[in-house]
TrEMBL record, chain A:
InterPro entries: Tscrpt_reg_PadR_N, WH-like_DNA-bd_sf, WH_DNA-bd_sf. It comes from the Bacteria. Residues 8-78 form the Transcription regulator PadR N-terminal domain. It holds the Pfam family PadR. This is PadR family transcriptional regulator.
UniProtKB/TrEMBL annotation, chain B:
It comes from Longimycelium tulufanense. CDD domains: ABC_MJ0796_LolCDE_FtsE (cd03255). It comes from the Bacteria. Residues 21-239 form the ABC transporter domain. The keyword Ribonucleoprotein does not apply. SUPFAM superfamilies: P-loop containing nucleoside triphosphate hydrolases. This is ABC transporter ATP-binding protein.
């Protein structure tokens, strides 16, 4: 299940809510740059309903679908627990693209060091922005920015290591070239 | 879009500001081993400049040449339009005391002195009387949130406290340039972050420039711009090299 489904489900553990309240709670805590669309909230809730992870807890008078109140089921609680207990698969992020660019630069006789320098500069620009945002933010902002900063830092460490191995890589790509 | 406009505004302001400290085509070798091989760098008043690069690339040698601790074999280091590479050792030493501050990774505090005496030391060396020097030192320790270690020797403090004392000592005499060589290298993330925040806030208030040598990208992210050193050469986008 997508992260939104699990997040809405986990938010319902605090007590039954209307779709509108759920969206507001999600946006306030997790929506920072990407608030949920109402359509996404209701389509997710109907999927959770179909899978028996939530149930309709009540209907308000004169209510259409948007007036339904949803509650998490026991199966839903088990699902949230299982999701929280399962580590996320580490993602390779940008490395594949950057590796391809570096290799292609070497293969076509362009400067792979320039590719790496430009990427370092761009990474640092983003890291400065996050560092500034962190300085002016609350604890939630700080934690979210830190997560992004650590990932960007990992990319940068890879860039530095690759920069130090460019001669070796160039020799492997073109065995005729001295290392 | 806003960020781009801000960057452009910052860039044009930077172009208008003359260099406070500048190194041109520095070469320096230790025996047969070249450490700097044509390094150039420009630091403006109040700017935070990160010097990055792998271990052994020449970052620290460059910093030592900029600060007048080492004399380059060839090339020039100019501070306030004055060639400091041609000054005598005594002249460079006086300049370091009056205009420069230093924060290193380890061991810069005098172990026999209390933290308060350590911070007061740069002022005492320029002739400030003990009472006045210790008064300023105490204010700086308070500002760096380590007033409680004033009476302790450096060996009795934690790593984070020791680095804050070192930052206080670097700034107490009102330097125009602070040289920081891996200032958070021995600290955990949270302590490192706090030291950087305090160092930057203090430098910003006093208008000091910071030359920040680091191989940690998260530390470099506190800078206004970066220069990369590799094999003794610099890549400074601003100088087109």
């Amino acid at each position: 299940m997508a992260i939104v489904g699990h997040t809405l489900l986990a938010l319902l553990e605090g007590g039954p809510r209307h779709g509108y309240d759920l969206k507001r709670a999600y946006d306030e805590r997790f929506g920072h740059d990407r608030p949920l669309h109402y359509g996404q909230v209701y389509s997710t809730l109907s999927r959770l309903l179909k899978n028996g992870l939530v149930e309709v807890d009540g209907l308000e008078a004169g209510g259409g679908p948007e007036r339904k109140r949803y509650a998490i089921t026991d199966a839903g609680i088990t699902d949230v627990a299982a999701w929280l207990d399962t580590p996320e698969k580490p993602e390779p992020y940008l490395q594949n693209t950057l590796y391809t660019k570096v290799v292609l630069a070497l293969m076509t006789g362009r400067s792979a060091a320039d590719v790496l320098d430009a990427q370092r500069s761009e990474h640092l620009r983003m890291m400065r922005e996050l560092t500034r945002r962190k300085a002016g933010g609350d604890l939630a902002d700080q934690l979210i920015c830190d997560h992004a900063l650590f990932h960007l830092e990992a990319d940068l460490r890879w860039l530095e290591l690759t920069a130090a191995r460019l001669d070796q890589l160039a020799a492997e790509i073109d065995p005729g070239k001295p290392s | 879009m806003t960020a781009t406009l801000t960057d452009h505004a910052t860039d044009s302001r930077r172009e208008e500001t003359p260099a406070l400290l500048e190194a041109v085509d520095l070469h320096k070798a230790f025996g047969p081993t070249p450490a700097l091989n044509g390094a150039s760098i420009r630091v403006r008043a109040g700017e935070v400049l990160a010097v990055m690069g792998p271990s052994g690339s020449g970052k620290s040698t460059l910093l030592h040449c900029l600060a007048g601790i080492l004399v380059p074999d060839s090339g020039q280091v100019r501070y306030n339009d004055r060639d400091i590479s041609s000054l005598s050792e005594a002249g460079r030493s006086a300049l370091r005391r009056s205009d420069f501050g230093f924060v290193f990774q380890f061991g810069q505090l005098v172990p026999e002195l209390t933290c308060l005496e350590n911070v007061a030391l740069p002022l005492r060396l320029t002739g400030v009387r003990r009472r006045a020097a210790e008064h300023s030192a105490r204010e700086w320790l308070e500002r760096l949130e380590v007033a409680d270690v004033a009476g302790m020797r450096p060996g009795e403090t934690s790593g984070g406290q020791g680095q804050r004392v070192a930052v206080a000592r670097a700034l107490v005499a009102g330097p125009r340039v602070v040289f920081a060589d891996e200032p958070t290298g021995a600290l955990d993330s949270l302590n490192g972050e706090r030291v950087m925040e305090l160092l930057l806030a203090a430098a910003q208030d006093t208008g000091a420039a910071i030359v920040l040598v680091t191989h940690e990208p998260r530390v470099a992210a506190y800078s206004d711009r970066e220069v990369v050193v590799r094999d003794g050469r610099t890549r400074d986008s601003e100088l087109g090299a």
